[in-house]
Amino acid sequence: MFHGTITKELTSHEEWSHYNENIIEDQKDFVFVKYNGLHLKSMENLQSCISLRVCIFSNNFITDIQPLQSCIKLIKLDLHGNQIKTLPDRTFWGGLKNLKLLYLHDNGLAKLKNICVLDVCASLIGLTMFDCPVSLKKGYRHVLVNSIWPLKALDHHIISDEEIIQNWHLPERFKTFNHRLFFNLCPALVKGTTYEDEIKNIKQIISRINRILAHNSPVLIVQRWIRGFLVRKRLSPLFKRKKPKDKMIRVLETKWICIGRRHDDKIMEDIFLLKPESHMKGKVAHWKKMRCTPADFKYFPEYRKCISCLSCELKTKDIDRKPKPPRHHIQKGLEGSISSNDSC
User: Which of 39, 104, 156, 308 has a Cα-to-Cα distance from 60 of 20 to 30 A?
Assistant: First the structure.
């Protein structure tokens, strides 16, 4: 009686109300809460934690989680080891759009229909409900896997394609509960962890789940192959440009052939329709210089005939000229004798 009177007087005091307002204002900035194994029975103090992202309330005596409805920024919610028998309605879970990991194992959940309200969680990737009465029911895993579409891991195993696609019989490697799909979704809690450590742990868990699926899901493997093929097909012109030598040679050859065909008349006029006073050797040398290679002459038989005629004409002109006197090599010893003979 005395204790109750003192408590009533304290709570009605002005300073007490001011103290409560300060606490509420501080709680709005909370992003990480960890109350593990403290035998708590209520979560009412978390109603004002609107910025909460990581909430660990494991191994307590919690029965109602409705106060978390205002914590719409939750990413991880750990409620394992409590006395929760029913989950809130779809309105509660529909507000938790960022929730990725939910730990509900070792609770008193028994109705499978009540668990299906989790299908409105748009980002839920990992869920644990082992050691609950509902996990012993027939079709428990099949119902949850095909109700919660974003879900990738349930209890101790990654969800396989065989559980999603009906009547699809896969090899042993891709079957449900294969050892390749085993994953500890809820590791043991470590004392003294900070908010940064928890966020890092969440990222590692999600990354590990995606890595296991990438190597053990036939659907994802085929999709990866198709994406790789389409990317290589789209970028193949860029890969071909890495060999400029052969391609540039081919381009230049085709370009020269096109130019030759377009200017056949001009080339014939410049080279073969020569004027009498024109310099014939210069014309022929210029025309040969313009060509790429001597092998290209085989494609122009008319040009070869004309060149042969020109060469014959040049030879005849060289014959008509006066021959120069031959040069004799005089040795040094015979130079004096030759000069004396000339004088005689």
Answer: 156
Q: Closest by alpha carbon to 133, among 154, 157, 104, 153?
A: 104
SS3 103: strand
Q: What are phi and psi of 50, to 5 degrees?
A: -75, -15
The residue type found at 252 is: L
Strands 157-158 and 153-154: antiparallel
Residue predicted with more confidence, 284 or 218: 218
The residue behind tokens 């001009």 is 266
* CA–CA gap between residue 89 and residue 281 (Å, rounded): 101
What's the pTM value of the predicted model, to 2 decimals? 0.63
- Report which residue type is found at 277: E
Burial environment of residue 270 by CB neighbours within 10 A (0 to 12, 13 to 18, 19 or more) = middle
Residue 252: strand, helix, or coil? helix
Helices within the chain (DSSP H only): 2-11, 14-27, 90-95, 112-115, 140-147, 161-164, 195-216, 218-240, 244-262, 264-271, 280-290, 301-320, 335-343
Vertex 118 angle, CA 113 and 120, to 5°: 120
Candidates 78, 103, 95; CA nearest to 153 is: 103
- Asked which of 47-61, 216-230, 243-257 is least confident by mean pLDDT, the reply is 243-257
In order of 291, 300, 306, 308, the CA distances from 294 in angstroms are 7, 11, 15, 14
Query: CB 181: neighbour CB atoms within 10 A?
Result: 20
Chain segment 266-324, per-residue pLDDT in tens = 555 554 444 444 455 555 555 555 544 445 544 455 555 555 665 665 555 555 555 55
How distant, in Å, are the alpha carbons of 50, 98, 121 from that of 117? 22, 16, 9
The residues pairing with 127 across neighbouring beta strands, listed in sequence order, are 102, 154
